[in-house]
What we know:
The chain is of the alpha+beta class. It has one domain (2-43). It is 39% helix and 18% strand. The chain has helices at residues 2-7, 18-21, 34-43, and strands at 12-14, 25-26, 29-32. Strands 1-3-2 form a three-stranded mixed sheet.
Amino acid sequence: MVSSALTGAADVFVTGDREILALRRVGTLEILTPRQFWDREREGPEGSPPG
């Protein structure tokens, strides 16, 4: 699945798989838990709360 994300030029790969999470990053692909992704999305594009 990580290879598909890299081929598709994804920015982020979201997973709960601990072995994949241990990589943290593959090239430009950032690997996050669902919670990390949710927190980042809630913060907004500049790291500030939306609204």
